[in-house]
Amino acid sequence: MLTGSDERIQLEVSLSGRFNASLGQVPLFKNAERSRQVISLFVFLLLHRFENISQERIIEALWPEDESDDPVNALKNLVYRLRKVISCHGTLDGNDCVVSKNGTYAWNCDIPCYIDVEEMERLWQNAKDNKLPVPERIDLYKKALSLYRGRFMEDFYFEGWVAPIASYYQNIYMNCLYEVIKLLNEEKRYEEITHLCEAAISMEPYEETLHENLLKSLINSGKKGRALEHYNYISKKFYKDLGVKLCDSIRCLYKELINDLKSSETDITTIKEEMNDPEAKGAFLCDYEIFKCIYRLESRTAERAGQSVFLCLLTMRSTIDINRNDVIVIAMDKLEKIIVSSLRKGDVVSRFSPTQFVLLLPLSYENGEKVVARLLDRFRQEYKNPLIKIDVNLEPVI
User: Fold this and answer.
1) 20 to 30 A Cα–Cα from 24, which one of 2, 162, 320, 378?
2) How many folded domains does the chain comprise?
3) pTM of the predicted model as reported, rounded to 2 decimal places
4) Is residue 244 part of a domain?
């Protein structure tokens, strides 16, 4: 079986994130894109290397919905190609690596093999042992997390057999993360929680629990300014990308943070410096929760002073059914820049939904109409898409 001088040469395979495989630190597949089906067979056999797999089971995984006219011969050809790739490496004999018997195929388990996701799972199982000291459990969890570099075989994710396995290892990763966060909180090791959450968010940006844990770790470590910046960032991102508001627990955390920042004792000079924004230009763009507070304040001021303030709702629509979400996203980004740069510093604007902006304009109705008309004229000049239309609703605050 082994043709090289080192009889214990190890096969090393990375399946977390982008696929990579090597024998003795030499890449096994030099052109992964041209070898997609060969790689799929290789990984499928590796993950089930402790069993003999029937032809039918492999065909069902690799050629779902009868994608091949002659799947049996297609599989035989794929096995031949895999054996050839391994043999060309010069260390192993492909015929000994991929064993066939009575209509089944199997990977030879005598070959030493290291697979990152399996090692992650092993460390996770060990870390769950409550009898171990907490620092040791934390180290095991962190080692497991370090092996996860993204979705299982992310370049192959849309292949049917990959998705459930990807979900399985993603769940292990998230379980590891949440368990170690509990332990780190008990130890008051908040900086480590921050780093782990930031790394996880780079791979799972829409997992709200990650953002909630990150905000808590920043607050607990005294970095309330960073926590506020992160909340504003994700609030905008969730509106823009998903069209949803953040969950109630995160919004409650935000309100507590704002109240806590207000209640901290400081001198008036520091307060002025913190509130001053020398680079501010154009309208004030803010989170919708802040917009509501400003709206309530402006409505009270307008009622008392007899001033004229109008609320404007801009709703973006398409003249035909546009299935491509990126068209609306690009158009809304453009409209946001035009609104902020076109309006005055005293005007307030917020994203209300994926296709709507709300504006607070301290103007008369006639002037408000003129301002909005100029704004829309500029949008049509800079974003020439005849399929996009913007509806305008303008009403007095009181």
Assistant:
1) 162
2) 2
3) 0.66
4) no
